[in-house]
Amino acid sequence: MAVDSHHFDVIVVGHGVAGMCAALTAHQQGASVCVLERAPKEDRGGNTRWTEAFWRMKSHEEVADDFESHIAERTGGYLEPELVHSMNQSSDTWPGYLRAMSFPDPELISAFADQAPPTLAWLEDQGLRFDFLPIHQIVQSFPKLAPVGGGLQLVEALVEKLEADDVPIFYQTTARSLIQDEDGAVIGLNAVGRRNKPVEFCGRAIILASGGYEGNPEMMTHYIGRAAINVRPVARGGYYNKGEGIRMALDIGAAPAGEFGSFHAEPIDPRASGPEPAVMVFPYGILVNKHGQRFVDESPGPVDRTYEPICYRLLNEDDGIAYIICDEKLEDVPNYQRAIRSEIPPVTADSIGALAEALGVPADALQETVALYNAACPTDGEFKAEEVDGLSTRGLQPRKSNWARPLDTGPYRAWPMTVSNVFTFGGLKVNTSAQVLNSDGEVIPGLYAAGEVVGIYYRYYTGATSVMRGATFGRIAGRDAAQLQAP
Fold it and tell me: Which domain CATH number covers 89?
């Protein structure tokens, strides 16, 4: 059977911010470029389409003060001290196994920090505008810039540039496997189009920017475990991320990186259908599981630093569901509505018992939980909704560290809360040129990766850096790939 074949200098897999930045950069460098996107045109943009696309930057020219340290401190386990000492030298001097190890490479983190500001400036040159915009987290611990119009505007502005220059975008086309020559260089890929029709793309460089595996239940269960059944992508773009980019690279010996058994978790209202229906008011109330019992400190610090660890605790609760319980005093929190992105109103009742019945939670258990909590709340101290106030419970386990006020004023309100998957952490190991490394720490010629395909996060997500890394390493990959000579 004859297979359709296409030839370009650079072939980009994925239509999110990483793929768009890679494609446009390579095109501007003079390379012939195409983009493969498994989604139909109306859903293009991957996860980027649905996000506000915050950047962890304190100005247009500087990343946040804790940018590098926050990523570096969340390492992949406990590294040998001698290996850590070796990292003070150039990676060129490292043994191959160290270059291939799954940990946050300090040179990669530094390159990320150095290249993010010029990447933002380049995006502004493409017609985008960035500003410090309102966010749905009431108490914040670090500064955040964002493109005006969010991720959707980011995608549309970049694709408009590509379409204006007739750069072809193959929609509903899914990459399946990589093609190598006799020397091991990647020279193309096999894909399928509509109706599973095979199609081949050949070129001198492939850039994988096709996202993680949050939309693949088999991979989610394989890496995350049984709790994955209770986790859904945070927005519809995630359903298109099925992990092929990661798998096809691993199949030819690429080194894995990032924590495959974890993901960026965000609390959502499972009743809602809109993108990222986060509910972030739980620091001002309590969280109870389906048995009506508290299981976690709801407010150990600023919500933008603590919601993810709380989500991980929720994963271990029965059916992965909890309920946020607040009373009428939530109205004391200025603009609390911006912390609720669900379009579904809360469940309300005039008493805790009635609220329990409406939620399907054991009434006796919830009433006892609320009574114990109320008795442990402080009777002195000032409630300060917009800063960490130190109002902590006393003698209660688990404690509530801040904003602890009795739930004693009806009507009471509740939102169900489950864990969503913003993106997965596991991916590929790359160097500072976004070239994919093999399991011996050597470059796989012709193969690049950017965005969620790259593994850089461990333990917890460094907030407001995902779109930022997609754009930054997409630019790096596109620039380097355009200069690559044909094998």
Answer: 3.50.50.60
Q: Strand, coil or helix: what is 136?
A: coil
- What's the CA gap between 174 and 170, in Å, rounded? 9
Burial profile 232-242: b = 16 or more Cβ within 10 angstroms, e = fewer: bbbbbbbebbb
Residues 65 and 162 in one domain: yes
Q: Are 417 and 265 in contact (CB under 8 A)?
A: no
CB within 8 Å of 282: residues ≥ 6 apart: 267, 298, 299, 310, 324, 417
* Residue 246 sits in the same domain as residue 160: yes
Number of structural domains, the chain? 2
Instruction: Give me the domain span that covers residue 319.
Output: 267-420
Mark whether 325 and 437 lie in a shared domain.
no
Query: Half-sphere exposure (CA, 13 Å, Cβ side) for 289?
Result: 16
Query: At 323, which CATH number?
Result: 3.90.700.10
Do 188 and 275 lie in a common domain? no
Q: Which of 399, 420, 441 is the last residue of a domain?
A: 420
DSSP letter at 41 equals G
Same-domain pairing of 186 and 304: no
* pLDDT digits (tens), the chain, 487 positions: 668 999 999 999 999 999 999 999 999 999 999 999 999 999 999 999 999 999 999 999 999 999 999 998 877 678 888 877 778 788 888 889 999 999 888 999 999 999 999 999 999 999 999 999 877 677 777 889 999 999 999 999 999 999 999 999 999 999 999 999 999 999 999 999 999 999 999 999 999 999 999 999 999 999 999 999 999 999 999 999 999 999 999 999 999 999 999 999 999 999 999 889 999 999 999 999 999 999 999 999 999 999 999 999 999 999 999 999 999 999 999 999 999 999 999 999 999 999 999 999 999 999 999 999 999 999 999 999 999 999 999 999 999 999 999 999 999 999 999 999 999 999 999 999 999 999 999 999 999 999 999 999 999 999 999 999 999 999 999 999 999 876 6
User: Do both 346 and 413 map to the same domain?
Assistant: yes
Domain stops at, among 398, 420, 442: 420
